[in-house]
Amino acid sequence: MSEHLAAEAARLDAADGLATVRDRFDLDDSTVYLDGNSLGALPRSVAPRLNEVIAHEWGRLRIRSWGESGWWTAPERVGDRIGRLIGAAPGQVVVGDSTSVNVFKAVVAAVRIAQQDATAAGTVRDEILVDATSFPTDGYIAESAARMTGCALRALPPGEIAEAAGPRTAVALVNHVDYRTGRLHDLPGITAAVHAAGARVVWDLCHSAGALPVGLDAHGVDLAVGCTYKYLNGGPGSPAYLYVARDLQPRFDSPLPGWNSHADPFGMDPAYRPAEGALRGRVGTPDILSLLALDAALNAWDGVPIEAVRAKSLALTDFFLRCVAAYVPAGRVVSVTPEAHPERGSQVSLRCSPELSGASGHTAEAVMAELIRRGVVGDFRHPDVLRFGFTPLYTSFADAEHAARILAEVLGADNPGAAHISAAPGTTGISATPAASDANDGSAAPEVADVSGTPSTSATPTAPAATAAGDGAGPPDEERTLLELPAVPPHESVRYGEHPDQVVDFYLPSDGAPQGQGPLVVLLHGGFWRQAYDRTHLTSCAAELARNGLVVALAEYRRVGGAGGWPQTGEDVAALVSAIRRHPLAQGRPLVLAGHSAGGHLALWAAAQPSTGQLRVVVIAPLADLALSDRLGLSGGAVADLLGGPERVAERLPEADPVRLLPLGHPVTIVHGTADPIVPLAVSEGYVAAARAAGEAAGTGGPEPELRVLDGVGHYAPVIPGTPAFRTLLTVLQG
Predict the structure, then answer these.
(1) Residue 396 to residues 8, 31, 318, 590, 637, Cα–Cα distance (Å)
(2) Would you say 618 and 671 are in contact if contact means Cβ atoms under 8 Å apart?
(3) CATH of span 472-734
(4) Ramachandran angles phi, psi of 282, nearest 5°
(5) Which residues are tagged catalytic?
(6) Contacts of 453 (CB under 8 A, 6+ apart)
(7) Domain 2-18+305-410, what architecture?
(8) Is 341 flagged in the annotation as binding?
(9) Residue 229 assigned to a binding site
(10) Using one digit for the tens of pLDDT, what is the confidence trace for 683-715?
(11) Which helix (H) or strand (E) holds 482?
């Protein structure tokens, strides 16, 4: 396998139209540098230019260089060069100050413009929306700007900003690419939505400029900021830039007016009069050495179209993930980078925790340190993310293959190239493909009846395979144990609709007859709602619950990648609950709606529907808060996939997110382990807190959710028969 992929890398490099651009950078062959999303490599043009600046322009011309060497106009001249790469016509970008300072200038100026418009219209705009997933400094600056302008600050996931923008919103500050996961956010869609609400938008382009087309002018962006030391290769601490759309420049009221942005900077007038155009974004004396180093670095872009860079970026990240899938031992890393090209920046982020990283139990920080020691330079983000940045100007396909092979060695592969990775559903380019065992241990598949009892034909559970793992890689011992359990055929199967996935399997107590009038448990499986993950992996769980005296209805539903998605998946769950209530086995029995992981989300959602009727809810490691799960990027953007794509998330969260449907009015018990690496305990804790607040606000006095925290338990143990966590679940279900 490794020879095959290495040969493929060589072919791809030979056909790469940007391959010769690598020669413009000072790189050594002993290191694979995949940290250009933190600090770009040194272009060869920089050192000679700085030598000239220092020796001649500063050393000989000295102060004359402000005019004779073009120092004074450099911020606008270099700004126009950057403008070409971010889709801005000349005269709209100025270079200077840090990203943080430019964020402050842009946000405050945008609020002032929006409030001027509001005053003219007789309305009030006193709200700033900020991307809750952005680099922390953006949030700090936005908070300060809010205090200065008398605004309230709301931090939201990027997918919710479009919907949240309203009549009081002044400005939204949004990150174009998530620095942790590499997720690319919808700049055109969010910009249009914010404008439709009458507000302004500021975009942070730190992780997109120089990696992909941005199109500021084409998409009507108001203001934007970005750094220059990542994909633009300007050097450590190189100055940032500020974009002000041409039609807003006469109204740009900087909160940091300086002599450099004065209409007559050398007139030393005590009264401030702003200059015309983009010069209004300047403050003080430019940092000439860093600015001219950046100017020289941009020579590396001569003749390079940004569209070619984007095409190579996607090809590189796709190929790297294929190599990781081929080389890294099963289950050791999980990609958190979106699979879809329109949602991916130019980096790959892999989650690597002690539970995942193999017998050594290394943390992601330790794994990255060892990679760097072996000559593969990426970086680490707390608590468990390995980041690999791909800079198409100098990163080769051979670099990508070599980095994946060394990662496999660090994570304990005896023979890199022979193993397959087991990754969370929906993660980029990674899948698990062990062979499945016999479907029913030689037993015949039962007939399937509709609710009236008429036999019909439908798919029945098959043996657990890796694709039935539920919600992705958890602690390896738990996941492996779950997957190795034999599939157990049901006592009876019934349809609740015409689609093959609209089927419910009934598991009865061991003698084949329901005992007493105990509860009927409707059990919903997980798998991040994806077609590849069916109910098979919970057949042993359902059968063991039945052996302990419960009647269990293990339900299937339409899923993403098949006929499902939203609202079809939710509609199926509501329909199956209604169908089960009409079944003879349900008569006289209390109903318990239970679900694991994504199934937990569906159980909580269904319980909130008026048609569901009275029941009790028991959920295990549930995706109880879709907005938070989307912000965390769980399973590579599974929430967005369920809801129809990133552009539909904000629109559909109010109807699909259990947190938005509180108070519930039914008893709820949540079982969640502290060591769950797939759905963090914080998701359940957030739901409980929201439920408590919603109940208090409504004055209902209804039951608060009970959260049973299982110390040291991961994602799967509660649904694995024989574990202490399973016994806890059984006790809860028995009531």
Answers:
(1) 12, 12, 13, 62, 27
(2) yes
(3) 3.40.50.1820
(4) -75, 160
(5) 135, 204, 229-230, 387
(6) 494
(7) Alpha-Beta Complex (3.90)
(8) no
(9) yes
(10) 999 899 888 888 766 565 567 899 999 998 999
(11) helix 476-484
